[in-house]
């Protein structure tokens, strides 16, 4: 991971700035005729506060009017096509909420007065007691009925208010969706005058909103700069500057001293230094921002909107500090030998200014966009802020990529080898370059929100990637150092639990792998649930709405689900391959598992992992298993006919991987085929013959047929046996000596067990002798027997001992004791 990291860090900032939510549209202005009619129809019947109590008939009439106005807003808001219409309906709903509150406020005193009158009358007489006067009973009955009526009216008013609040939220969602749809389409190139019009021809409504916001800021600044407070303000601002400059450097030097003198030797020092640089930058930024906040607000109370703006600026400052900190940590120009990514020194020096420059530019442009959100500016100003931030990101990252490529080209021209780059790092670098080019093209042709989406999501992806890379390296180095048998911690654990060095390596590998996997899962979760601005699903929905998305919805195909499934497929395949490489290269070799078993475990993990991934993809697509009953039925029929063999071989492959009657590396013989197993796939097994050719055998044959496993039981010895027939008048002891001499003289025959000659049979054709010797491996039995035959025939000819006619020669590949067969 080389160049990509800086590119990412550079990009990181852009994302964080405007990343909050989509700004509200230009809701200013009056509604259309329908909205105005609704507002007029919903005008309050009740006048301002009066001493006359509201009558039951008037309260019921007001409730009926409120319900009718609410129903009209619901009907008309669903067909609204502009922000002015929705804004008018929102105002009408807000007015209805106010009328409902007024009605409740008028009914509650009446309810309290009735309750007081009922309390004055006292409780009704108990059964069997003296009956009260008819006039009192009549009065009590009337008051109780009126109380029940008032309670019902109050409940109806409360329900109406709740429904109106929900209606206002629905109108806000309609405005949000309408804004997304408008922002997804072409809005004007950054080279056109319309894009820059907010600077030269501002909208009067925007000027008024900004003036109102400035009126909120002015008292705060005046309170900070008044004669009695100016010295304190200057002192706090100076402290902020000192903390950000001198304090940050002191933190860096202190952490570097701790890493160098108090951490064990090894890679833990460099990863800890990178983390300390990042955290030191964040800490210095946080303290400096707090000093600035105190300097400006210690004698003034902020309004809610101004407080929200200040909080957003503080988050933006932290994000920009993270960009600068990650850039300094990963480039590490002050300690090149401690640099985590493989970046050449000239390249790192060339890219050094860009993280800080990007962070500063993003702080300014992001503050502008946050100001737009706070004061709720018009759509054109919102697009201007988004385009400005995207332009800053594109130009800064593009300049860093061009400069880094020039330095690499200069190194190559000078004959120096540039830094090594992995395939994954190259893909990241290519993706960043492509995104920058596409974003710049989108800005030039007028698709500003498309450019914003690309740059912001790329920054979010790179921020997560860089953070995960740094934490993953720290986790690996920490586990390796803590469980190292050469360090004090590893020695203490080894002595405490009675472990061996191999066990410490296994624990270190498992913990490092588990930590890395957890960080990777957190990163995937952050990529799916976090991010800035418009989500991929929102953007895709907006784009497809113009091309008949309603037809897709009728087919129950949701664009966001398709995009999520595609992302999950890419990430899932990458995770499976990464874990598979980790199992094969790190964990299993340190666990002492034999190579054949390792390959079987890795293959089984891959097969099960892909099955789980397919199920996950179907779940993300929204597939309901109850709707797949007809597919399952069709598959069952297909399995009964055409897919029967495939399913049988698949199940047999799982049995081979779990039960392991044969494994990778075994030498087997089946149906006249003899060779070494090279791979056990899902459907078939690959067997390599002695002539280097490969035979593909279905897995079901290895389970159902008789199979001879030459190397089962970890047998390492082979047997070379020859059976020869001689005439009856031949001296068998002489022949035995010749055969034993040939075997004992051959270098491949083992001394233990010693070679032996056996009198096999006596026939009219002659006597048959069997000679047996052991070799180091069954794979050299064939070549050894061939060489022995040459030597034996040469010795027999020298001794003038003929073979019987016809000659009988039997050659077998046998296993040493401990071998076996499976079938």
UniProtKB/TrEMBL annotation:
Signal sequence, renumbered to the chain: 1-27
Stretches that traverse the bilayer: 231-251, 272-293, 313-331, 383-402, 423-447, 453-471, 510-535, 555-576, 597-622, 628-647
Alphabetized SUPFAM superfamilies for the sequence: Mechanosensitive channel protein MscS (YggB), C-terminal domain, Mechanosensitive channel protein MscS (YggB), transmembrane region, Sm-like ribonucleoproteins
Domain Mechanosensitive ion channel MscS: 646-711
Highest taxon, organism lineage: Bacteria
Residue ranges constituting the Mechanosensitive ion channel transmembrane helices 2/3 domain according to the UniProt record: 603-644
Main location: membrane
Protein name: Small-conductance mechanosensitive channel
Organismal lineage: Bacteria, Pseudomonadati, Pseudomonadota, Betaproteobacteria, Burkholderiales
């Amino acid at each position: 991971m080389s160049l990509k990291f800086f590119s990412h860090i550079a990009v990181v900032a852009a994302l964080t700035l405007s990343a909050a939510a989509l700004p509200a549209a230009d809701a200013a202005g009056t509604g259309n005729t329908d909205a105005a009619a609704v507002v007029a129809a919903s005008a309050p019947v009740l006048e301002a506060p009066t001493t006359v109590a509201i009558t039951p008939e008037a309260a019921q009439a007001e409730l009926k009017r409120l319900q009718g106005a609410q129903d009209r807003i619901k009907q008309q808001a669903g067909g609204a096509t502009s922000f002015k219409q929705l804004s008018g309906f929102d105002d009408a709903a807000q007015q209805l909420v106010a009328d409902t509150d007024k009605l409740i406020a008028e009914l509650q005193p009446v309810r309290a007065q009735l309750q007081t009158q009922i309390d004055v009358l006292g409780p009704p007489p108990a059964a069997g007691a003296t009956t009260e006067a008819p006039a009192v009973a009549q009065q009590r009955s009337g008051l109780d009925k009126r109380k029940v009526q008032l309670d019902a009216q109050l409940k109806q008013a409360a329900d109406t208010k709740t429904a109106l609040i929900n209606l206002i939220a629905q109108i806000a969602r309609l405005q949000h969706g309408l804004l997304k749809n408008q922002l997804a389409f072409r809005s004007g190139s950054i080279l056109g005058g319309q894009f820059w019009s907010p600077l030269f021809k501002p909208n009067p409504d925007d000027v008024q909103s900004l003036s109102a916001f400035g009126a909120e800021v002015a008292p705060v600044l005046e309170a900070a700069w008044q004669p009695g407070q100016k010295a304190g303000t200057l002192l706090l601002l100076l402290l902020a500057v000192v903390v950000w400059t001198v304090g940050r450097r002191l933190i860096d030097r202190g952490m570097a001293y701790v890493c160098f003198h108090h951490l064990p030797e090894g890679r833990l020092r460099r990863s800890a230094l990178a983390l300390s640089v990042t955290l030191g930058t964040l800490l210095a930024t946080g303290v400096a921002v707090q000093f600035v906040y105190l300097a400006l607000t210690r004698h003034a109370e902020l309004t809610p909107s101004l407080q929200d703006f200040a909080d957003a600026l503080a988050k933006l400052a932290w994000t920009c500090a993270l960009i600068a900190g990650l850039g300094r940590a990963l480039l590490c120009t002050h300690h090149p030998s401690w640099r985590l990514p493989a970046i050449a020194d000239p390249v790192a020096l060339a890219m050094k200014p860009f993280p800080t420059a990007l962070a500063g530019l993003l702080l300014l442009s992001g503050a502008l966009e946050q100001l737009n959100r706070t004061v709720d500016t018009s759509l054109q100003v919102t697009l201007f802020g988004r385009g400005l931030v995207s332009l800053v990101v594109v130009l800064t990252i593009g300049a860093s990529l061009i400069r880094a490529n020039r330095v690499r080209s200069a190194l190559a021209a000078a004959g120096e080898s540039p830094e090594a780059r992995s395939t994954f790092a190259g893909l990241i670098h290519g993706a960043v370059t492509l995104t920058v080019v596409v974003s710049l093209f989108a800005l030039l042709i007028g698709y500003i929100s498309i450019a914003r989406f690309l740059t912001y999501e790329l920054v979010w992806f790179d921020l997560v990637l860089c953070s995960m890379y740094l934490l993953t390296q720290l986790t690996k180095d920490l586990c390796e150092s803590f469980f190292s048998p050469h360090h004090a911690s590893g020695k203490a654990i080894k002595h405490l639990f009675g472990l061996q060095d191999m066990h410490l390596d296994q624990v270190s590998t498992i913990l490092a792998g588990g930590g890395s996997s957890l960080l990777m899962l957190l990163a995937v979760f952050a990529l799916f649930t976090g991010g800035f601005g418009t989500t991929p699903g929102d953007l895709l929905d907006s784009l497809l709405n113009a091309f008949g998305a309603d037809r897709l919805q009728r087919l129950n195909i949701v664009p966001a689900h398709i995009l999520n499934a595609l992302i999950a497929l890419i990430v899932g395949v990458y995770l499976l391959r990464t874990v598979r490489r980790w199992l094969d290269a790190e964990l299993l070799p340190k666990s002492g598992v034999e190579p054949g078993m390792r390959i079987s475990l890795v293959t089984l993990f891959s097969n099960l992992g892909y099955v789980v991934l397919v199920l996950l993809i179907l779940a993300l697509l929204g597939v309901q298993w109850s709707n797949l009953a007809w597919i399952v039925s069709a598959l069952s029929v297909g399995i009964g006919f055409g897919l029967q063999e495939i399913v049988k071989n698949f199940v047999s492959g799982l049995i081979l991987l779990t039960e392991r009657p044969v494994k990778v590396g075994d030498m087997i013989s089946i149906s006249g085929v003899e060779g070494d197993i090279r791979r056990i796939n899902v459907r078939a097994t690959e067997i390599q013959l002695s002539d280097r050719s490969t035979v593909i055998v279905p897995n079901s044959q290895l389970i159902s047929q008789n199979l001879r496993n030459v190397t089962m039981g970890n047998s390492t010895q082979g047997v070379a046996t020859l059976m020869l027939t001689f005439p009856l008048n031949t001296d068998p002891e002489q022949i035995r000596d010749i055969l034993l001499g040939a075997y004992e003289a051959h270098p491949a025959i083992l001394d233990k067990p010693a070679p032996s000659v056996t009198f096999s049979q006596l026939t009219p054709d002659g006597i048959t002798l069997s000679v047996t010797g052991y070799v180091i491996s069954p794979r050299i039995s064939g070549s050894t027997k061939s060489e022995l035959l040459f030597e034996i025939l040469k010795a027999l000819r020298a001794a003038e001992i003929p073979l019987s006619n016809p000659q009988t020669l039997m050659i077998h590949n046998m296993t040493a004791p401990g071998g076996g067969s499976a079938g």
